[in-house]
Amino acid sequence: MNSITSYLENGHDECDTLFAAAETGVARSQWAQAQTRLDEFAALLERHFGMEEDILFPALESTTGPGFGPTMVMRQEHAQIRALLDDMNAALGARDRELFLGLSETFNLLLQQHNMKEEGVLYPLADRQLAGESAQLIDAMQAIATAQ
């Protein structure tokens, strides 16, 4: 992958696939399968957030200055996404199908809007601002992905 955008968009696609599998498991009351997929999804999502929060955002902020609006918003949204994921995990643990599926609608909406901002604004900005460093940044993000 030669761009930050393509590398991180691929991570979004992988997350979407695992989350859909968890939702399907809940909808079918296949609790063990749903829990496994949700756990896999949560681990992949956390790895993805780590790549952004530990590698990409600091690199961008080094060119824009601390307190850069878009990265601050993305960090806030990551916190909201994590909290909602915790709520869904609790609903799944309680085998509360309706609550889980209701929360998952909100989660999907939030995550899709978040991803659109990243894919449409933040990642292309990173590709432009960090063009000379993109290969090193992708290597650093891949190191996070393989370490976990």
Outline the structure in words.
The chain is mostly helical and 148 residues long. It has one domain: nmb1532 protein domain like (Four Helix Bundle (Hemerythrin (Met), subunit A), Up-down Bundle). It contains five helices and no strands. The model has no long low-confidence stretch (mean pLDDT 93).
Please identify, by name, the CATH architecture: Up-down Bundle
Fraction of residues in helix:
over 70%
Portion in beta strands: under 5%
Q: Please name the fourth-level CATH homologous superfamily.
A: nmb1532 protein domain like
Unreliable residue runs? none
By secondary-structure content and strand pairing, the structural class works out as mainly alpha
**Mean residue pLDDT:** 93
CATH hierarchy, class: Mainly Alpha
**Number of helices, counting only DSSP H or I runs of 4 residues or more:** 5
**Biggest β-sheet description:** none
- Domain tally: 1
What name does the CATH topology carry?
Answer: Four Helix Bundle (Hemerythrin (Met), subunit A)
Taking the alpha carbons of the first and last residues, their distance comes to 20 Å
**How many β-strand stretches?**
0
What is the N-to-C order of secondary-structure elements (H for helix, E for strand)? Answer: HHHHH
Radius of gyration: 16 Å
Described by the principal axes of the CA atoms, the overall outline is: elongated
InterPro entries: Hemerythrin-like
Organism: Noviherbaspirillum aridicola
Domain Hemerythrin-like: 5-126
Protein name: Hemerythrin-like domain-containing protein
